[in-house]
């Protein structure tokens, strides 16, 4: 079956589209019943929409999913995975056998919710309200960087329209004039536990979408001709579009149509069998939709030159957030590096990149969820995004970071203004749980440099790092500790003071490294020799360095961090040494109370992570 | 100065309001210049709005902030704290000396951003887009629970209108018909690093607000008469209102008026002095605004009866999420207990409460940020909210939970569907970083029961717990392990198997307790005696129990958790034993790879947290 969007939709085509939709329904029912779990009713409501899309509008080379000009199809309502996988069978991407035998089984790439284990899936979905925001990032790449005619189609559920992130996405789509983006909202009126907030109030959806700068197109989501016209209009529109499709949940199976209590429930085998029969039985339709426009092959990227990293004078006072900006600007010599910020680039110092490379800098305003989602979308298109905001405010996007890890996205995040060190602004602005949160992200890298030289060197490595790479930077200015050109491998550490006979090891990262150095000086005056370790790589951690310290000091460690006590640097050290046979005593200094306003020094002292506290802790161990 | 909203605003009153606004401006300038930091320009834009509000519309007894019928004033744009504190001086709540000498200083309650260290401040703000959502919770209490005529006024910045959470809030305000809620948006056109997305496009704001079910009232934010009319209309409106005020950032100080580059910067002393002079100098106006309507005193609450907790048969298969619902329903006998859910109450089993107490159950649909914010607002009014969604999706509200801790809010959160145990739905639905994230919240409590009896007992204690109390529940059904009526103190643990000569201790929580028990049985057949500890209280942790285990087993511990390896149960155990002098060897089993779909048992086995892995780990230690 081949259809072209250019032709008018005749009766025959309508019949064939109806057959295709029936096959999608049948397959969605069959695979979920076979698996004994899944969301058939949420798939049935969108089957007509997707049949028209893949047969006539989605320009996609299914054999070569990385094709540069391929459209992108994102199931923002990831729970409709039976429908997505039914599509994959219909286009010949997967076999009927794979669909029927492996859906939701251990080891299958046809997981309960879509993940990029499938080459046709850009990002993992299943946490609602994320697919469309990621689509915004892909569309940004298409319009502003790739200059390619691909279109991004995001299938959304109506329940997820209650997520603020959807409105962040539509707002940005409007702001950036993303005519290459279409959200298709499957308004089937029923959420998981009952009616959605707006049910079939399409007019309210329409007014909201319009007010947010997108063009709404309201259709009957089961009228194939109307759907076809809507998608045609969406492709030709001069701005972002939202197809608001009134649909019926469970459409095609009278037993469950428009009935609550059927969310996420497969049909029982006998009901399924009857439904499949009523829908005309199993089909073997193979659809070939439109192909992407031929576009020139991408120029072979020249091997990236090592960036000319900024240099700093040893001892000079430089904030690591400034070094982030400097290094990011230096990385800008690579055309695949892009930067984003949440309207605080003069604080995170991402503005240095923005000024040098305005075409590759995306201002996401105060919408941290969209900030991270756009970064994920940009890396789908092969870019290397660096997204920055205050460390504290990355917590706003934690679910997006979590999902980005499941998407196997490669993104760099920079969180500035970490810890009580920020001073007078008070606890709302202090990142104090970010190390715990970011460490717990699957496959993440967590970096926390103490000076400008190490910061720049780490930023340079983040650009090619796999997974979620997080950099924690400090607000205040501290002395440059290292020589330009020093090595700071991820997973490494630095010994700032060391001898074979050290009495104790002082272990810090970021700002507390400076406190450790001062404490070591003070301890030396008391005759206690303290090793000082800069654990700039919090994850992965330099275990060998810790083992050496345990061996040389008799297991006397002071770990000090500008972070709450749980899950941060101290935990990282303890986890790393958990299985050690010899005794290790760790005196762990962290921010245990709720901080207030004050100066950096006052607050670090008050929290017990200042010089005096480190001296006392070391003394107690010796 | 006393004015009443009932009177028409005459010339004399306008003059006096102008004087009050000038005093607010002068004080905001003075205190931030004195502190050397702060946000005067963001305060100047809203001074006229606030002068009219406090003098004529905010019904508030400043001497008795807990007065039941007091209005609520929330600075959602918390960075305008100089203006808030200038108000507090103008109403006589704080002295000029406190304002001038302590703002942003260590130990002061006048912190960089407002916190409830001040009795007139309901919640901490400073992470944008949170004050209004919390206001929705307060207004829900006013309209549906208190039935009191107070009004909630939230001063918002225009930058924060880009946060999706603002639209979640307005959506819920409209949905619940919160006529007692008014957002006042200070549209001063300039964000931190430059123009806002919409600048002075008041018409777009108007259309958005209207589409989200609220009544927009557009005014010139420096026209005192217009402002007064707008607030009068807001108070009398039949639904939620949004006063969209076009303002000028830095208004009143020509050097900075409407100029970028002045966000978050105090005026230099000489500029400040000149500005104060131009504004007419320091004033000593004391304003008394309208008082709250007299309302009947609250009935003295009867001492809450201990709830009749659900009982379970030992050995019966019960999911802890079901026990959550059962216990919550039992707690419903207390009239201050309220419950909220994010449209998944049939999964979290909050529906059990919702069915029994529909008047105290708030459906927040799929908007987890608003879910948590509403809980925070409800506890402002003295209620004991329980908010539930999937553990994975609480990550969506992490910034709100972080801020709730700074607000010293007492809320209970329930995250269901924890870990790989959920099975076929796949990683997007699995809470696998929640223990790390929630443990890192300041002052939090983290509970993870293994069976229905302990779960119910813990839920009963959460109701009076201070701070953020998090309960992690499991999807599947597991045997009841404990006797009804057993004690499960927060901070405690349970010994399920123990002897003086135990070779090793198996430590689990939640679902892994069951795996530990099975492993102990298997180990016993090999002649290895294993202690089994149920660490149902992950924070605070039962350190003594661990010390006993270390002593009795020679420091051989296996910790097993259905969570990523960083920051969870294993870290909690290690942190607790960090300073121990004797050797402890911990074999830490956790979910190290990215999970997929599968059955519970398959996935636990694959992750290395199943019975076989525990046996192997214990054997390796012995």
TrEMBL record, chains A, B:
Cofactor: Mn(2+); thiamine diphosphate; Mg(2+); Ca(2+)
Region listing for Disordered, in residue ranges: 287-310
A Pfam family this chain is assigned to: Transketolase_C
Keywords, alphabetical: Calcium, Magnesium, Metal-binding, Thiamine pyrophosphate, Transferase
GO molecular function: magnesium ion binding; thiamine pyrophosphate binding; transketolase activity
Domain Transketolase-like pyrimidine-binding, residue spans: 318-480
InterPro entries, sorted: THDP-binding, Transketo_C/PFOR_II, Transketolase-like, Transketolase-like_Pyr-bd, Transketolase_BS, Transketolase_C, Transketolase_N
Listed GO CC annotations: cytoplasm
Family in the record: Belongs to the transketolase family.
Self-association state and partner proteins as the record states: Homodimer.
Protein name as catalogued: Transketolase
Organism per entry: Micromonospora eburnea
């Amino acid at each position: 079956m081949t259809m072209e969007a250019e032709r008018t939709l005749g009766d025959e085509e309508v019949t064939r589209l109806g057959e295709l939709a029936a096959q999608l329904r049948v397959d969605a029912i069959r695979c979920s019943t076979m698996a004994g779990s899944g969301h058939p009713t949420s798939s049935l409501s969108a089957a007509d929409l997707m049949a028209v899309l893949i047969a006539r509008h989605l320009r996609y080379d299914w054999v070569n999913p990385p094709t540069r000009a391929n459209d992108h199809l994102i199931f923002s309502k990831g729970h409709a995975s039976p429908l997505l996988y039914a599509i994959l069978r219909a286009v010949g991407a997967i076999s009927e056998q794979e669909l029927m035998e492996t859906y939701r089984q251990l080891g299958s790439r046809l997981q309960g919710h879509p993940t990029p284990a499938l080459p046709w899936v850009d990002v993992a979905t299943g946490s609602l309200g994320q697919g469309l925001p990621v689509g915004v990032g892909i569309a940004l790449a298409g319009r502003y960087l790739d200059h390619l005619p691909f279109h991004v189609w995001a299938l959304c559920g109506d329940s997820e329209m209650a997520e603020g992130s959807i409105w962040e996405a539509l707002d940005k789509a409007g702001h950036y004039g993303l005519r290459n983006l279409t959200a298709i909202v499957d308004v089937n009126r029923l959420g998981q536990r009952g009616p959605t907030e707006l049910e079939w109030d399409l007019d309210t959806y329409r007014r909201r979408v319009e007010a947010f700068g997108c063009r709404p197109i309201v259709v009957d989501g089961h009228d194939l001709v109307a759907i076809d016209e809507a998608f045609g209009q969406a492709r030709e529109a001069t701005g972002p579009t939202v197809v608001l499709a009134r649909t019926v949940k469970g459409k095609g199976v009278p037993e469950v149509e428009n009935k609550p209590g059927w969310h996420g429930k497969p049909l029982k085998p006998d009901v399924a069998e009857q439904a499949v029969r009523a829908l005309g039985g199993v089909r073997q339709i193979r659809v070939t939709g439109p192909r992407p426009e031929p576009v020139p092959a991408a120029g072979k990227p020249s091997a990236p030159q090592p960036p000319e990293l900024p240099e700093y004078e040893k001892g000079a006072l430089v904030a690591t957030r400034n070094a982030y900006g400097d290094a990011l600007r230096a990385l800008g010599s690579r055309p695949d590096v892009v930067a984003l910020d949440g309207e605080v680039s003069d604080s995170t110092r991402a503005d240095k990149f923005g000024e040098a490379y305005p075409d590759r800098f995306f201002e996401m305003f105060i919408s941290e969820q969209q900030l991270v989602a756009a970064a994920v979308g940009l890396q789908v298109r092969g870019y290397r995004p660096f997204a920055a905001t205050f460390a504290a405010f990355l917590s706003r996007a934690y679910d997006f970071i979590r999902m980005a890890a499941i998407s196997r996205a490669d993104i760099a995040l920079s969180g500035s203004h970490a810890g009580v060190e920020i001073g007078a602004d008070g606890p709302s602005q202090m990142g104090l749980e970010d190390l715990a949160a970011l460490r717990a992200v699957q496959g993440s890298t967590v970096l926390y440099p103490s000076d400008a030289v190490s910061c720049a060197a780490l930023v340079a490595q983040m650009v090619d790092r796999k997974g979620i790479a997080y950099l924690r930077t400090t607000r205040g200015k501290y002395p440059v500790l290292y020589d330009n050109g020093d090595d700071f491998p991820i997973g490494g550490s630095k010994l700032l003071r060391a001898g074979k006979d050290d009495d104790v090891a002082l272990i810090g990262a970021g700002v507390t490294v400076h406190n450790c150095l001062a404490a070591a000086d003070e301890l030396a005056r008391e005759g206690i020799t303290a090793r000082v370790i800069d654990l700039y790589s919090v994850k992965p951690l330099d275990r060998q360095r810790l083992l050496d310290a345990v061996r040389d000091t008799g297991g006397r460690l002071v770990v000090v961090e500008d972070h709450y006590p749980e899950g941060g640097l101290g935990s990282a050290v303890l986890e790393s040494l958990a299985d050690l046979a010899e005794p290790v005593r760790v005196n762990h200094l962290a921010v245990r109370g709720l901080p207030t306003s004050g100066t950096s020094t006052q607050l670090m002292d008050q929290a017990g992570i200042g010089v005096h506290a480190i001296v006392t802790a070391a003394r107690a161990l010796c």
